[in-house]
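Lab notebook, bench 4. Still working through the backlog of constructs that have no structural model yet. Next entry is a single chain of 62 residues. Request: give me the structure tokens for it.
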Amino acid sequence: MDKKHNGKGYTTEAAKLIVEYAFQILKLHRIEAGVMPHNIASIRVLEKAGFHKEGIAHKNVK
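Model written out:
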């Protein structure tokens, strides 16, 4: 998303809608998301959408 739209909640709202759709409509029981540990904004989006940290995949962090 273009930087001029950052901080307006668009990505958080989209993530929440996707999570709702996945659990309620698709009947998934688990969703996994990957984010780089230094990307605090993306981590906050995932937290607001109901995700919680389970660990770090060290092989994926570069």
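Notes after review: The radius of gyration is 13 Å. The chain has one domain: 3-60. Flag for follow-up if needed.
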